[in-house]
Each structure stands twice: as structure tokens, then as C-alpha cells.
């Protein structure tokens, strides 16, 4: 299964629910396009829900990092929600766990944007 | 590719097209081989991920999706290890030239983490320049005891 994506609004925070694999090809390009669209719309508070993401490769990590820098450069924030152990390990081994703000609880994550 | 040494069993030896579909097929085939040999779930994930990164490098950076170039994959099983050799037909590269993705100035780069992850997930990784062209990467995972 490649990536599935759903966008919803919680107050002024845009939550992007992702499911499946974020790998080079369809997975990473779908995520890239979705983030570009949100930034183009002017969304500045973006929460990526990775709770149902089963696998991320280096290309997927690259898209998370690019999304983070693009949103930050536009004066916004991009945060992560629901990392499973493998994704967390991957962010730790690449030292990106120190870059992203990550949450386990959605309500807490949404409040953090206030 | 080498003939398997005594005590090693060859479980895969084939050419793949230079496509992203080949990356998925090779990853799944090697994951299954590791599963049959009793590698635990955590190691299978690491093997699958290292193979994926290596195949992507071979297809995208080595062969540049060239339809006349192939990626050769050989998998052998030893008494307590799995060895994967992945060879492309590209111009080759110098692994030591790849910037350190953990360096502060590279942390937010979009790409450049593949070789680092391959090394992080496997017990042994060797790069060999092939003559007249190409790069062969050998990945070794030892079974947890």
C-alpha cells in the first residue's frame, strides 16, 4: 500500500492524516504536493499525523524535512503526531528528533500551536 | 558476482530493471528470505530498509533509470548471517565523499541520508568499484543470538 492522505481542520490547525508508506515515488510526491498546497493556501499551523504510517524511507524523511523548512520559512509551524517506534527510531538515528516537535496526544499537539 | 563460499546457500541471484518497481520487488524478496531464515521482526525491518536504500541508489543514482542497465542482486545465507550484494552499472561514486547527514549544516538537507541509514542498519557494509563500470555494495546482517 502506498500513502493515503486526509486533511481536516481542528480550530485553526490543519491536521494531515497520513497512512501507509512514505517512500520514494508516489508516497513522497503525494506528501510533497499536499504540503505545497497547504502552504500555498496560507496554512501556517500544520500537524502531520503519522499514526498510521507503517514505513518511511530516506526520501520520506527528506519530504518531512523539506515540509518543515518550507512552512517555517513562511512563518508557520509544522509538528508531528503519533510516531510509532520505528519512525521515532528513524528520526532519532538521523538526529531529526531534535528538530521536530512531536506529540502523542492530538489535543495537546493542537494546544501547542496557540 | 561471487560464487557462494562453502556453507553459504544462495537464495536469490537475478537482474532487476532500473525501475522503482524493482526496488519494491527486491525489498520484498529479501525480506521473505530473511523471514524464512528466522531473522526477528526488528532485523527484518532493518534489512528491508537497507536493501531499499541501496536499490534506490543503484536505480536512481547509479543506473539513472536507464532501460538498458540492470541492477544485479545476489542473496546468500550463512549459518548465522544474511549477505546481500547489489551491483549497478553506473559511473560509480566515492562513499567517503557523501556529506555527513548528522553534521549541523546538513541536518535540514532534503537528501543524503541513504548511505548513512544503510550503515546504521546493517552489521557490515562494503563498497567496491567494478571494472569497467558500476558499484557493488555488500550488506551483511548477523542473526541476533
Q: Which CATH class of chain A applies here? A: Alpha Beta
Count of helix runs of chain B: 3
Distance between the termini of chain B: 29 Å
Helix fraction of chain B? Answer: 25-40%
- Please give the order of strands in the largest beta sheet of chain B: 1-2-3-5-4
Derived from helix and strand composition plus strand pairing, the structural class of chain B reads alpha+beta
Total beta-strand segments of chain A? 5
CATH topology of chain A: Transcription Regulator spoIIAA
- As for the CATH topology of chain B, it is Heat Shock Protein 90
CATH class value of chain B = Alpha Beta
Spatial separation of the terminal alpha carbons of chain A: 35 Å
Shape of chain B: globular
Computed Rg of chain A: 13 Å
How would you name the oligomeric state of the polypeptide chains in this document?
A: heterodimer
Q: How many separate structural domains of chain A?
A: 1
Classified in CATH, the superfamily of chain B is: Histidine kinase-like ATPase, C-terminal domain
Provide an overview of this structure.
The complex is a heterodimer of chains A (114) and B (145). Chain A has 114 residues and is of the alpha/beta class. Chain A has one domain: STAS domain (Transcription Regulator spoIIAA, 2-Layer Sandwich), CATH 3.30.750.24. Chain A has helices at 26-41, 58-73, 85-93, 106-111, and strands at 4-10, 13-22, 45-56, 77-81, 102-103. Chain A has a 5-stranded mixed β-sheet with strand order 1-2-3-4-5, with helices on both faces. The longest helix of chain A has 16 residues, at 26-41. The termini of chain A are far apart. By secondary structure, chain B is α+β, with helices and mostly antiparallel strands. Chain B has a single domain, classed as 2-Layer Sandwich (Heat Shock Protein 90). Helices cover 32% and strands 26% of the residues of chain B. Chain B is built from 3 helices and 5 strands, in the order E-H-H-E-E-H-E-E. Chain B has helices at residues 20-36, 41-62, 114-121; strands at 9-17, 70-77, 81-87, 124-129, 135-142. In chain B, strand 2 and strand 3 (81-87) form a beta hairpin. In chain B, helix 1 runs antiparallel to helix 2 (41-62) and helix 2 runs antiparallel to helix 3. Chain B starts with 8 loop residues before the first strand and ends with a strand. The mean pLDDT of chain B is 94. The A-B interface holds A 23-25, 57-59, 61-63, 65-66, 68-69, 86, 90, 93-96, 99 and B 20, 23, 45, 49, 52-53, 56, 60, 101-102, 107-111, 113-114, 116-117, 120.
Amino acid at each position: 500500500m502506498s500513502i493515503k492522505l486526509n486533511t481536516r481542520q481542528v480550530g485553526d490547525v490543519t491536521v494531515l492524516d497520513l497512512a501507509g508508506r512514505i517512500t520514494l515515488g508516489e508516497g513522497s510526491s503525494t506528501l510533497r504536493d499536499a504540503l505545497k498546497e497547504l502552504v500555498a493556501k496560507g496554512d501556517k499551523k500544520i500537524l502531520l499525523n503519522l499514526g498510521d504510517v507503517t514505513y518511511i524511507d530516506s526520501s520520506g524523511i527528506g519530504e518531512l524535512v523539506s515540509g518543515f523548512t518550507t512552512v517555517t520559512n513562511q512563518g508557520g509551524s509544522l509538528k508531528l503526531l503519533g510516531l510509532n517506534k520505528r519512525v521515532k527510531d528513524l528520526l532519532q538515528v538521523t538526529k531529526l528528533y531534535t528538530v521536530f516537535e512531536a506529540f502523542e496526544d492530538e489535543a495537546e499537539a493542537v494546544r501547542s500551536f496557540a | 558476482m561471487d560464487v557462494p563460499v562453502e556453507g553459504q546457500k544462495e537464495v536469490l541471484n537475478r537482474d532487476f530493471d532500473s525501475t522503482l518497481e524493482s526496488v519494491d520487488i527486491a525489498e520484498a524478496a529479501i525480506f521473505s528470505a530473511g523471514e524464512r531464515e528466522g531473522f526477528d521482526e526488528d532485523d527484518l525491518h532493518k534489512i528491508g530498509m537497507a536493501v531499499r536504500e541501496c536499490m534506490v541508489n543503484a536505480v536512481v543514482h547509479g543506473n539513472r533509470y536507464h532501460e538498458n542497465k540492470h541492477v544485479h542482486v545476489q542473496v546468500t545465507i550463512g549459518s548465522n548471517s544474511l549477505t546481500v550484494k547489489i551491483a549497478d552499472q553506473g559511473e560509480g561514486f566515492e562513499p567517503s565523499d557523501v556529506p555527513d547527514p548528522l553534521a549541523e549544516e546538513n541536518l535540514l538537507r532534503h537528501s543524503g541520508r541513504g548511505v548513512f541509514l544503510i550503515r546504521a542498519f546493517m552489521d557490515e557494509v562494503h563498497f567496491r568499484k567494478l571494472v569497467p563500470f558500476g558499484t557493488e555494495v555488500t550488506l551483511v546482517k548477523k542473526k541476533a543470538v
